[in-house]
Amino acid sequence: MDSSRLQDIRDWLVDGARSAATPSEMMAECCARLVDLGIPLWRVGVFVRTLHPDIAGRSFIWRQGAEVEMGTVAFGFESSPVYRDSPLARVFEQGAEFRADPRAPESERFPILMDLRAEGVTDYLTLPLTFIDRAVHASSWTTKSPAGFTDAHLNAIRSLMPALARYTEIITLRRTASMLLDTYVGNSAGERILGGQIRRGHTDAMDAAIWLSDLRGFTPLSDRLPAEDVVEILNHYFDCQVEPIREQGGEVLKFMGDGLLAVFPFRRRGGDPTEVCARVLAAARASRARVDALEYASGGAGERFRFGVALHVGRLLYGNIGGGNRLDFTCIGPAVNLAARLEKIAAKLNRTVVASEAFAGACPESMTDLWTDLGEFPIAGLSTEQRVFGLRDEGN
C-alpha cells in the first residue's frame, strides 16, 4: 500500500475535495482513487442523518462501473424492521465498527447481507463517521475479492474516516443551513441570505404578482377547538396552497396566523407579467379546489374550510427589515398593502378569489372571460376607489 498516495487522498478530502463539485462527484473520485491504490472496492455507501422537515436521512451509494446513486429516508424508517435488522443500526446506535462475511451462516440474520451475498460480495465493513458534535453517521465498504479485505485494506479505509467525516460534516452543515433557510424564509430569500444579504435595510426592488390569502372564520374556530386540533387544521389548509404555489413558480414568504403571503417574481424587471399571472391564477384555482374538498370535525359533525385569496401585481421592496439583531426577510410596499385590502374585500363579498384591475388586465386574453367586474371600492389610504374583479364561476 503506497502510504504517500493514501495521504494524498486524506489531504484532498480535508481540503474540501476541490476537484469534485458535488458530494456525488467526491464519492466517485474518492472510490476511483482508492481502487487505483489497490483496494478492491465493489460498493461504498455514506449515510447521513439530516435536519429536514420531511427527510430523516440521505444516502450516497457508489458501485464499481456505475453512477453514484443518491437516496433519501423518510421519518419512521428507524423504527422499521429493515433498519432494526441492519448492521447500520448498530453503527448509528453504538458508534462502533461492524464487519461481516456475507457468505457466513451467521450473516443470514441481516437481510442486507443476504442481498450483498447474491451480488457476490465477500466482505462487508461499516464504520462510523463522527461529527464534531459527536453525532454519529455511517459509511459502508464492500468487496468481491475472494479473500475479502486484507489488513492493509482495512487499515487504509479506517485511516480515511476522520478526513471523510470532516468533508461530510461541512457539506451536511451547508445543506442544512440552506434547507432551513428555504423552509423558514423561502428559496430566493435563503439564497440571498447565504449570499451575504443580511444587513438591515438591504433591500431590492422586485416586480411580481402578489398572493395574500386568509382562512375565514379562524378566530371562532380557534376559540372552540383544542390548540392541537387548530394546528393540524392550519397545516392541512396550508398544504392546499403551498404545493400549487410552488408548482407554479411562486415562493411562500411567510405564514401570518391563518394568513399566507406569496410572490411570483417576474423573470426580469419590467418584464411581461402575462405568463406569470396565468400561473398564479392556475395556482389559485387549484388551491380553491383542494380547500373545497377538505373537512374538519367539529362537535361531531364535519365542517368545511372557507378561505379567500387576493391577487395583485406591482413593484415591491424585498429584503431585511427589523430592529436590533432580529431581522425578517420580507416584502413591503403599496402593492402589498393593496393586496391586503383586497383580501378584506373578498371576505366582505364572500368571494374566494378576487383580483385587482392590474392583475386581471395582465392575464392572457384567453382568460379575460374568466373575470367579472365586481365594481369599485374605497381602499384605506388611497384617494381613489379601486376596481375589483372576481372569478365568474363563483357567481354574481
From TrEMBL:
Q: Which InterPro entries match?
A: A/G_cyclase, Adenylyl/Guanylyl_Cyclase_3/4, Nucleotide_cyclase
Supply the SMART domains for this chain: CYCc
Q: Which residues form the Guanylate cyclase domain?
A: 209-343
Name of the protein in question:
Adenylate/guanylate cyclase domain-containing protein
Q: Which residues cross the membrane?
A: none
Query: Which residues belong to the signal peptide in this entry?
Result: none
List the source organism. Answer: Bradyrhizobium aeschynomenes
